[in-house]
Amino acid sequence: MIGIRHGLKWGISTSRSYFPHDNSAYFEGHDESILDWMRQYSKDQTETYLRGFLGKMLFSNESVFKPVNVLSGGEKVRCMFSRMMMFGSNMLIIDQPTDHLDLESIAAVNNGMKNFKGNILFSSHDYEILNTVANRIIEITPDGIIDYRGTYEEFLDTVSLVKEVEYGSMFTFIYSARKGTPAAEMPDPFSKEEKTKWFMELLKV
Fold first, then answer.
1. How many of the other CB atoms lie within 10 Å of CB of 176?
2. Each residue of 32-83: pLDDT tens digit?
3. Between the chain's N and C termini, which has fewer beta carbons within 10 Å?
4. Three-state SS at 186
5. Residue 87 contacts by C-beta under 8 Å, 6 or more apart in sequence?
6. How far, CA to CA in Å, does 89 sit from each of 2, 116, 133?
7. What gap in Å lies between CA 77 and CA 142, rounded to an integer?
């Protein structure tokens, strides 16, 4: 993905699949089976081929004949993932993938995302997926964008350090050490805005 002045431009070699948080538009007005729902998106119409992708999302045996208009929220999410895997894209854009899923399905999604060989841009409230899948955290703040290279747990540790900086403990200690004065006797010489600006610059890539 290449940054440009007024937005983003995708690279020529990228092929993308999108997983929306609200998937209702993909199921409204449909009453066919899960298998036939998948068939509309596939060039290969054979049952064996389609079952291969549905099986990865825990649809097996007779469950593939269940009508899509009676699916639970979690089952619809699993259908969407099966559909996305079938496209073979090298760039996935995923918005909160584990909503409505049970623990077994969440584990399947987690493993699928970890094993994916391309790039994934995703948002999630699931700590396990954030910490095991993401190796780059982008946070949008009122002061700008923080682009952190590392795990989510490492990012949280860094955020904790930022909070210490905001309260002045680190800055006051460093400043007082330079002045040769005990920190407890030193007023904080830095404003919150100065500390935030300094740390934002430190974290930017």
1. 18
2. 999 999 999 998 999 999 999 899 888 989 999 999 999 988 889 889 988 9
3. C
4. coil
5. 15, 17, 41
6. 18, 10, 18
7. 32
Report the distance separating Cα 169 and Cα 181, nearest Å.
Answer: 14
Q: Chain-centre distance of CA 142, in angstroms?
A: 20
Cβ-based neighbour number of residue 149 at 10 Å: 11
Residues 6+ apart with CB under 8 A from 7: none
Residue-wise pLDDT tens digits, 121-133: 999 888 888 999 9
Task: Give kind and range of the element (H or E) at residue 95.
Answer: strand 91-95
Element (H, E) at 110: helix 103-115
| H/E element, 28 | none
Asked if 204 and 198 touch (Cβ cutoff 8 Å), the reply is no
Q: Which residue has the tokens 């054979």?
A: 46
DSSP assignment letter at 192: H
Task: Give the Cα separation of 148 and 136 in Å (integer).
Answer: 6
91-95 and 16-19 strand pairing: parallel
State the Cα–Cα distance between residues 91 and 16, nearest whole angstrom.
5
Token pair listed for 145 = 């964008």
